[in-house]
Amino acid sequence: MVQFFVVHGVVESAWARPYSWARNNISDLGNASCAWQAEPEPRYVCSPEHGLMNGSFVALGVLLVVGVVLTGGGLRRGGLWRGGSAAFLGRLLLGGAGAGFVLAGLAPADVDENLHVLGALLVMGGGNVGLVLAGAGLADRVRPPLRWATVVLGVVAVTALGLFLSRHYLGLGMGGMERVAAFPLLLWALAAGVLGLVGRPAGPASPQRLRQRAPVAARVT
User: Fold this and answer.
1) What residues does 37 pair with on adjacent strands?
2) Which of 53, 76, 81, 90 has a CA 20 to 30 Å removed from the CA of 215?
3) H or E segment at 83?
4) Do 160 and 180 meet the contact criterion of CB atoms below 8 Å apart?
């Protein structure tokens, strides 16, 4: 997930006409040609490093799908998810969001708008609903404040998506509101990935390691 924000900064810095987080969509960074865009808000788009941004979208999507898979595994094996329909549907939607990033990267908005919009809806629509469900589907070992924070992030992102689609930007601009709808999922995925890695239990101890851990008195007797 970190690579996305790094690449985002690199690609936007290559714009001759300054890129704006308020006026420009995230997708503008991946547009393959220079042109005036009238919708949803008028702006000029010209992204010299669009190939790098689209590659980042694809990499992000693949990593998100892999992360959803690796943080599973059931509670006994240190997974982040409990059983039940909420966890299953949440993971399914989050995996779909990963597929959406891949689709958005392979089909830039000015190359195939329909496929790109579909990818964006999988990310900001399905992915954010999956984030809300994740709050109920996370394992008990995830502390309650983190589970509630997951739900809050999802609700904020879903609300922001509704405002973005209805063109109510609340002073943040088109690009700013889109980021409120898109970034919570990325930040949560980064946090969940770290928690999944550091929280996994070690594998079964070998007999040699068990003997090394045994108290001295026990080994003497």
Assistant:
1) 43
2) 76
3) none
4) yes
Contacts of 83 (CB under 8 A, 6+ apart): 74
Measured between alpha carbons, how far apart are the two ends of the chain, in Å?
A: 53
Q: What is the mean pLDDT of residues 79-100?
A: 87
Residues with Cβ within 8 Å of residue 147, at least 6 apart in sequence: 135, 136, 138
User: What's the CA gap between 138 and 150, in Å, rounded?
Assistant: 9
**Segment 146-172 mean pLDDT:** 94
Beta bridge partners of 44: 36
The span from the CA of 86 to the CA of 155, in Å, is: 16
Size of the chain, expressed as the number of residues it contains: 221
Euclidean distance between CA atoms 173 and 176, whole angstroms: 5
- State how far the alpha carbon of 205 is from the alpha carbons of 77, 123, 202, 212, in Å: 14, 41, 8, 11
Which pLDDT score is estimated for 216? 42
Q: What is the CA radius of gyration of the chain?
A: 21
pLDDT of residue 214: 47
pLDDT tens column, 189-220:
888 767 655 554 444 444 444 444 444 444 44
Q: How far apart are CA 14 and CA 46, in angstroms?
A: 9
Q: Is the dihedral of CA 180, 186, 192, 194 positive or negative?
A: negative
> pLDDT tens across 114-132, in order?
999 999 999 999 999 999 9
